[in-house]
Every structure is written in C-alpha cells, then in structure tokens.
C-alpha cells in the first residue's frame, strides 16, 4: 500500500507513477463521473505535467467603461481582485479561474512570473492565455483554451477568490487536487483524495503487469478476464 505524509510526498509519487487517465478511471468506479475539465483545456506544450491544490478564482465579464459607471467598488479596480488573488497564491497551489466568457486571455507572462516566485505549481483558465513565448520560457505549467492575445482588462474582472467555482461540468472547491497532462485535467475532491489516490496507485501498477502480459502475447479478452483491466 502506498503511503504519504504530506503534499510534497504525494506530489512526488503522483509525478512518478500516475496520469490523468488512471485517476479518472478510479473516480468513475467511485461514482464521481464529472471530474474532468472540458476537452478544449489543453497544455501549452504536450509534455507539461501539472499537480497541485486549487486556488479558485471567479471571473466575470464587464463592459469596457465599467470602471467609470459601476457602483460596485470591486469593478472600479482595473482588474477587480485579480492582483490580490495572484498575490495570495501559496506554494503547491494552482491558480484556476472560471466564470467569464471564453473571449479573452485570463493568464499571461507577468502573472506566471509572480506565481512561480510564490511557489505555485501552475495555472488553469477557462479561457485563453497569452504571452505564450514568455510563459514557455519560464517553464511554468499553463492549461487554457489556447493562445490568444486579447486582454481581459476592459472585458473581465476577478470578483472573488477561494470560493467554489464551476468549470464546465465540474464543481471545484479551494484546496481540491488538480492533475493535468496531455490528456486533460482532472479534479480530485479533497474529501475523496485518500481513496482516489490509493486506488489509482494500485491500478497504475496493475496496468503495468497487464501491459507486459499483452506485449508477451496474451489476448485482450484473456487479459481482461484475468486482471479486470484494459
């Protein structure tokens, strides 16, 4: 049985042995059927791997002149609470933002530099990212709908953070575990993570056995009947 004492040990084990597909399969078996972000959320490059705890950020669309006309002091700020949320990142966390229209960039190079300095493990946005060359140069894991330079400044503002958010069909709470790779991003609810990861390590190790048997010539039907894995 795999054991870990803290997040750092768990993160290291996950990086070494797990991937989103096996974690998703385990959650399906547990009845957690809506834990993957939409398939259009992709890493900026194919070899990126992301693991960390969610620091949830809620964004909302605004009109370009909202700062002059709004009675809400949050909307009178240039980015709403974006700067405060960014500065609140803790080591091992992932900035994950949703709530706005997918029409503009929610993440960029300077944000990546600040997040990396704070020890954050990545960013996931329900929209686009920009300054792509700069983000890649920082080697900072970023998952988004793609690369698009149109800025959020006159179009959207952060209205809250560390609150539950909806990202596609997934409800994400502050502190939930996020795992991202070339096959997508899955969300492991904090209250289920012990069971999910214990079962995922067991399944990942069993899959290696089955893979070896298939490569040795065992048939798919026989392998599934014997191991229950395919």
UniProtKB/TrEMBL annotation:
SUPFAM superfamilies: RraA-like
Keyword Transferase set for record: yes
Keyword Methyltransferase: yes
Binding site for Mg(2+): 131
GO BP annotation list: methylation
Transmembrane spans: none
Keywords: Magnesium, Metal-binding, Methyltransferase, Transferase
MF annotations from Gene Ontology: 4-hydroxy-4-methyl-2-oxoglutarate aldolase activity; metal ion binding; methyltransferase activity; oxaloacetate decarboxylase activity
Domain of life: Bacteria
CDD domains registered for this protein in UniProt: RraA_family
PANTHER family: 4-HYDROXY-4-METHYL-2-OXOGLUTARATE ALDOLASE 3-RELATED
Protein name, UniProt field: Putative 4-hydroxy-4-methyl-2-oxoglutarate aldolase
